Amino acid sequence: MSDATITVVTPDRKLPQPPPIRIEPGLAANQWGMLTFLASEASLFTTLIVVYLAYLKVDQEGPTAAVLSLPLVIGTTICLLTSSVTVHLAVRSLGLNDRTAFIRWWLATIVLGILFLLGTAYEWRELIVEHGLTISRNLFGSTYFTLVGFHALHLSAGVLVMLIVLGLTIARLLTTKDRAGAELVSWYWHFVDAVWVAVFTVVYIVGR
């Protein structure tokens, strides 16, 4: 019996290479920090809203939710929701390296936030002076001023930080390349706006 020789013919071509593995970038440490902070703030406002609803109909002595000025608050709410659009356009301008547009939209956001706060101050003055509703008058006054007041406090902090960012940008200490800080501030601003939608719905729609 003769030995048989087996020849294996290999085609003269390269096998297709698998595509390179791409690692998708995750969130940075400062972004995780902001998300954690916003989650804790969401828990705070959830608690305040639940307490407000729990005591809404308990104490009927003195002024109640019927004295709230809905037309005024609708106007201030429009201002605040519009500010979410302007802050988005401001951050978008950073991505386009358009410093002038960023300053314009960022300033517009600040003005809209201040208008909201002025409207809130006017509403509180009307409630206190004309209706005698204070934080210690009854349970409604306590829960109302606490809930709306905490939101106004958070919005005031947002306006202050945005003013600092605006000043640094005008002084050219911040450039369009330094967009991380502005993006995180915009996250906070969107969060405060979203919280107000919940507060407005509970206090001025459901509560009435």
Can you walk me through this structure?
The radius of gyration is 27 Å and the shape is elongated. The model has no long low-confidence stretch (mean pLDDT 87). With 208 residues, it is mainly alpha-helical. The longest helix is centred in the C-terminal third of the chain and has 32 residues. It has a single domain, classed as Four Helix Bundle (Hemerythrin (Met), subunit A) (Up-down Bundle), CATH 1.20.120. Helix 2 packs antiparallel against helix 5 and helix 4 packs antiparallel against helix 5. The protein contains five helices and no strands.
SSE order in H/E notation?
HHHHH
**Domain unit count:** 1
Task: Work out the number of β strands.
Answer: 0
Q: Give the terminus-to-terminus CA distance.
A: 104 Å
The gross shape turns out to be elongated
Structure annotation, total helices: 5
**Quaternary state, please?**
single chain
Can you name the CATH architecture?
A: Up-down Bundle
CATH topology: Four Helix Bundle (Hemerythrin (Met), subunit A)
Report the CATH C-level class: Mainly Alpha
Low-confidence residue ranges: none
Strand content: under 5%
Report the radius of gyration as a whole number of Å: 27 Å
**Largest sheet: number of strands, sense, barrel closure:** none
Helix fraction bin: 55-70%
